[in-house]
Amino acid sequence: MIELVSTERCVGCTLCVKVCPTNVFDKGPDGIPSIARQEDCQTCFICEAYCPVDALYVSPFDLPLEAVPTEMELVEANLLGSWRETLGWGKGRTTLAELDTTPFIDRILPARR
Ligand code: SF4
Ligand code: SF4
C-alpha cells in the first residue's frame, strides 16, 4: 500500500497522479500530490516505478499505522523508490528486461511439459 510521498524529493511532475489506476492521489496546489484515498491503493507499485526522483514508497504489506516506517527510516534502508530500482528504471540502471534472457514466446505461453 502507498505509504509515503516525500515532499523533500518530489518535483511536482504529477506522473504518479496520472498513472495511478485507482486515483489514490490528489494533486496539491504546489503540484506535490497527497495520498487522498489510501484505502483504494491496489499495491500495484506503478506510481513508485514512474516517479523520476524516487519520492514514493509503496509497502508490499498492509502495515498497521504504528509499523509504517518514517521517511528517515526509509532513506536509511534505501527503500524510497526501491521498486523502481529493482525494475532498473532510471538513469544508469540495468532493466529487468535486459537481464531476462527468457525467449519472449516462453514468457507468454504456459510452461512446457
Ligand atoms: S501502488 Fe498503484 S494503486 Fe497504489 S497509489 Fe500507487 S499507482 Fe495507485
Ligand atoms: S511522480 Fe514523484 S516527483 Fe512526480 S509528483 Fe509524484 S511523487 Fe512527485
From TrEMBL:
UniProt entry keywords in alphabetical sequence: 4Fe-4S, Iron, Iron-sulfur, Metal-binding
Cofactor(s) this protein cannot do without: [4Fe-4S] cluster
4Fe-4S ferredoxin-type domain mapped to chain residues: 1-30, 31-61
Domain of life: Bacteria
A Pfam family matched in the record: Fer4_7
Alphabetical list of SUPFAM superfamilies matching this protein: 4Fe-4S ferredoxins
Keyword Iron included in the entry's annotation: yes
Any one GO molecular function term: 4 iron, 4 sulfur cluster binding
Function in brief: Ferredoxins are iron-sulfur proteins that transfer electrons in a wide variety of metabolic reactions.
Stated name of the protein: 4Fe-4S ferredoxin
Organism: Paenibacillus pectinilyticus
